[in-house]
């Protein structure tokens, strides 16, 4: 077998180029049977080229690690051999990582996938949620940083050996264990492992599970995605073909490595093509100083592609230097959420770079659709399907196929689609017997195969049975003068079930006219029910660890505002309510309201006012 990198086999501009690739035998184009084969291929073809640079700080001179492709293969080999000695086997045994992206982490995570299964844990979760997740995953080994490298992760790891029955040992990056039982220095174990060849035979079955990602739920039964070698190999191949990744590319990876965007989109996909991946800090783009110096890194390393989720794109626009030479940058990419048109237009106006949207989810190793780098970016479209995969749109009511241009639920099938969640019961309604994955996103396909997303089905605001897409509201608001970004969610309502409310964040230094904004919304929204009942200005939208707008927090904010309005109406302006969010015995939302400054009759009136709302409420008087 002749191994190959994932560099493009031909330029991709249209769906016809995708179809031309699919005429060729798949195994000829993608001979790798496991992730290790990909790194053998890049080491053989581009061994002396730079592969991986990890920075301690956003100072381009402060690299904690710099490896060529030959050195990267050796490091992965050594890590895989170490994990093999600790009991991991292909498809069996989980090594979990609770750590920021320190210098050692990417190589260790890749090596653990060669030896067995890797789990990357979001270190921003609570200690209790982390313990639940490790137990669900059956983690046997946990890798954490020493206290001086990350005190938060160190503290959250305390007690995990006792709390997680499957967990056998904890390896400490930085080696300082402080005498904790069951904690071992990493370096001696790694140094004892050979780096010149694997001490075991890797799997040759692409369907072998090698990675676990937490994608939802932190209590009860967390939702854990299982990805195979084949899922990730195909995703890397797809990115390589449509984005045109090759050995000359230099790309900053601004995602954390507990996110599939970090491990695959601008991680494995770049490395497998022979490119150079740069990690700008252990905490990706979260530190403000990294965003402030991002363009310095681009200039220093000769970066060829810049990227980020839409909120990061907005932030990077604000730090773009007027004298920046962008001649080496062949592409600017974004994904992870629908790109507000105003954000994309502002980025292009400031930088001169067109934005190419992509679309994926954890369940597809981040690969569903791509705007081809060699083609023309179509604003609002996330592009063409991955080679050797299928995308279709079906009616959310009947399940029937939608004709081109008609919106519906987005479904995808192909080698990148996961085999199911760790809990098979969670596959219901998501993955069918024919391999079709229902993404939960709404969109439409054009005649030429381009996918346009319109929102999330679960983000829909349902007003008296009328489905309202919040993206339609946000699109109008984001174009209004003085608004930096906006988000619409549903507020509970006694009559309609829920009504739209709009949260806005002003652009720096701006004072948007809310009356004029309401007039604009009334004039431009195509359906009266979509007109927001309230417009609320806040300092910043809540976001996830990777910068996506976190709408559940906004829904909670909308509930608090609804309670405030009802308290004012029933109890008077002097009354104050404390609102806490809980769940009842059936797992349904339960909102606990404690009121001060109200009479018993007013509390009873408030209770009666909240009772018709879709959520459950308890109302008590507080001293």
Structure notes:
This protein has 623 residues and is α/β, with parallel strands linked by helices. 31% of the residues lie in helices and 25% in strands. The chain contains 19 helices and 28 strands. A nine-stranded mixed β-sheet has the order 12-13-14-15-16-20-19-18-17. A seven-stranded mixed β-sheet has the order 7-6-5-3-4-8-9, sandwiched between helices. β10, α11 and β11 form a beta-alpha-beta unit. α3 runs antiparallel to α4, α4 packs across α5 and α18 crosses α19. The longest helix has 21 residues. The model has no long low-confidence stretch (mean pLDDT 92).
Q: Would you summarize the structure shown here?
A:
By secondary structure, this protein is of the alpha/beta class.
So how many helices?
Answer: 19
Biggest beta-sheet profile:
9 strands, mixed
With strands numbered from the N-terminus, the spatial order across the biggest sheet is: 12-13-14-15-16-20-19-18-17
Structural class based on helices, strands and sheet pairing: alpha/beta
Tell me the Rg in angstroms: 25 Å
Helix share bin? 25-40%
Q: State mean pLDDT (0 to 100 scale).
A: 92
Number of strands: 28
